[in-house]
Amino acid sequence: MNLASHAGEANANLLFVNFNQDCTSLAVGTKTGCRLFSLSSVDKLEPIYEHNETEDICIVERLFSSSLVAMVSLSSPRKLKVCHFKKGTEICNYSYPNTILAVRLNRLRLIVALEESLYIHNIRDMKVLHTIRDTPPNPTGLCALSVHNDNCYLAYPGSNQIGEVQIFDTVNLRAVTMIPAHDSPLAALAFNTTATKLATASEKGTVIRVFSLPDGQKLFEFRRGMKRCVSINSLAFTTDSVFLSASSNTETVHIFKLETPRERPTEEQGSWMGYVSQALKSSASYLPSGVTDVFNQGRAFANIKLPFSGLKNICALAMIQKLPRVLVASQDGYLYIYNLDPAEGGDCTLLKQHRLISDTSGEGIAEQGGDRPLTKPDYMESPDDGNCPTADLLGTAAHEDTLTDELKLDDDNEFPPMTHHTDIP
To answer: In this predicted structure, what is the pLDDT of residue 269?
Structure first.
């Protein structure tokens, strides 16, 4: 969640906050640097790394639980830096034609989103494999990259007038399908873990839809509300794809349960809503389609009432200490952790809130972290220098990531020496 455009609002020091791909850590970018926190405990937000001796960081993305991080600063918004934070080394950097709006990572690819183009890098050597040019204007850099190696899909808006989603295979470098998801422009996108489902929301914000992949068929439709249009900030699936969360600029976070009608409790059949639903099915042939759509839309299984409204936030669903939790990182500089009852749903209980940035006294978390700050690279790079002497660190950057066995990212010899062009046309 990039907050650089909101720097003059609540908590102006916070520029960026985002969860990593498996929600095991949280990355925070501020006007004085960046921080990484572990999400292994509810009661304690354990710092993994802090660096306060660099420029304002408006994007910081970590590759799973590895030491590989990608960063962009406000002072150099066209430059992407890839770093090994454990070794305190900058691996390489790339400059792009325009401002970098978003960066997405998985174990195979690194995606850089500009307003009207998308760059697909091979994460093994950072070479540009493909560029999707002349995309519809995308001022927020909205896109989603799946984390699954077999279904390594990229989703991005296919129009800035209506809610079309383009699905692109980043391994075979080909278009997969186009999904006409909404009548209004897109506001949020999210893949499930296996990239067999895609959740979408439009700028109108009243309906959340879930589509199957790769065929693009609509599976579920959930109504977030009917009284007002809102700005959807984020969508997130649980690892098992049973639940989907949606956060917005309101005080409510909705959690939907992905169940087909035949999976719903049988006692509903004898209820008033069950009667209405049955009557609706029998009369669907002569009722307007808009009316039947409203009745067929699912409602929230659980809800969260946040202690604020009108602030940008990002939500995630994670297992912490073997229990399902809802995590909300907000523009106000706090992480909120809620309990989720997977059986009963209902209102979620606030368990803990953690401050993400230092207070005005200057006391931060640096003393608690065990990792030293990034150092300057041991070489001086000019704009025309295409060499990257420390590029072999890509091979060791993920030595702590236990989920990357098939890539052998802990092998120093896995990657050849990397060269790159500093300026990308």
So the answer is: 54
Residue 174 neighbours by CB distance under 10 Å = 9
Rg, Å, the chain Cα set: 22
Q: What is the pTM of this model?
A: 0.81
Q: Which two tokens stand for residue 192?
A: 């499930």
Which candidate, 219, 215, 226, places its Cα nearest to that of 200?
Answer: 219
Side by side, the strands of the sheet bearing 186-191 are 186-191, 197-202, 207-212, 218-223
CA angle 255–143–417, rounded 5-degree value: 125
Nearest-angstrom CA–CA distance, 118 and 418: 21
Q: Say if CB 138 and CB 156 are below 8 A apart.
A: yes
Is the separation of the CB atoms in 11 and 335 below 8 Å?
no
At residue 269, what are phi and psi to the nearest 5 degrees? -65, -30
The single-letter code of the amino acid at 262 is R
**Residue pLDDT, tens place only, 13-72:** 899 999 999 999 999 999 988 999 999 999 999 999 988 776 799 999 999 999 999 999
Round to whole Å and give the CA distance between 37 and 59. Answer: 15
Residue 10 pLDDT grade (very low, low, confident, very high; cuts 50, 70, 90): low
Q: Which amino acid is at 248?
A: S
Q: How many helices (H) and strands (E) does the chain have?
A: 2, 29
In three state form, how does the secondary structure of 350-371 look?
EEEEEECCCCCCCCCCHHHCCC
Dihedral (Cα; 152, 116, 29, 127), 10-degree rounding? 50
Q: What is the pLDDT of residues 220-243, one digit of tens each?
A: 999 876 656 789 999 999 999 999
Contact 409, 124 (CB under 8 A): no
